[in-house]
Amino acid sequence: MLKSDVIIACDFKSAEDTFRFLDLFKDEERKPFLKIGMELYYAEGPSIVREIKRRGHKIFLDLKLHDIPNTVKKAMAVLSRLDVDMTNVHASGTIDMMKAAKEGLTREDGSCPLLIAVTQLTSTSEERMQQELLIGASINDTIVKYAENTRAAGLDGVVCSPLEAGMVKEACGKEFLTITPGVRFADGEVGDQVRVTTPARAREIGSDFIVVGRPITAAADPVAAYRRCVKEFLGE
Ligand code: C5P
Hints:
α8 (165-172) links the parallel β6 and β7 (177-180). This protein has a single domain, classed as Aldolase class I (TIM Barrel, Alpha-Beta Barrel). It has helices spanning 15-23, 38-44, 46-54, 69-80, 95-105, 126-131, 139-152, 165-172, 199-205, 214-217, 222-234, and strands spanning 5-9, 33-37, 59-65, 86-90, 114-118, 157-159, 177-180, 209-212. By secondary structure, it is an alpha/beta fold. The chain is globular. The protein contains 11 helices and 8 strands. α7 (139-152) crosses α8 (165-172). Helices cover 42% and strands 16% of the residues. An 8-stranded parallel barrel has the order 1-2-3-4-5-6-7-8, surrounded by 7 helices. The structure holds cytidine-5'-monophosphate. Residues 9, 11, 37, 121-122, 159, 181-182, 193, 211-215 line the site of cytidine-5'-monophosphate (C5P).
């Protein structure tokens, strides 16, 4: 099982921009755990994952799969060959889809990267969820139910707001992982994130992994910002 960590969201548009950023960390003993999302993956394809792995980083491949179980299973089998450390699906794809994802991702030797699920995107408000998606429950009840489904499907945890990590742990147990974006330094810019908290507070509430983008990638000194984040979150 991977240890708690700070994951840097590599929200760059090209391999060139990504490697320019990663070169800043060349002399760091601690290789940052990185999140690669749709933009970079669709721009550069699987080679970007292989190249970043080759440089010694752990990777969370954030592609949020959501399709019929058979398609998700086959897509996950392809992703498992990329040797990522963590990847994800949408919990709204149902327990069957999540089980299929896990089967596809499990390698012949029985090993499997961490597989987590998105509950409700933090961009979805309770109002829209109820009016557009016709989900009558409260957003918190929906998040807890989707987390319980994720656990029932045998997955490792969920992506959620750090402010929701406590209630997810309460419902699903402390071993069930919470991966939380929406983290900001106490003296930093909030930007477009709404429900944010600091690295230290995220840890107190129960986050296992924090996903941090702009507070590190847009900092004047990204290496110093990363070190600060690790210190505040892990106390190292
Ligand atoms: O720059 P910032 O720290 O806001 O980046 C957060 C990262 O986490 C981005 O890659 C964003 O897409 C992702 N994310 C999020 N909220 C979610 C799910 C993913 O901010 N609910």
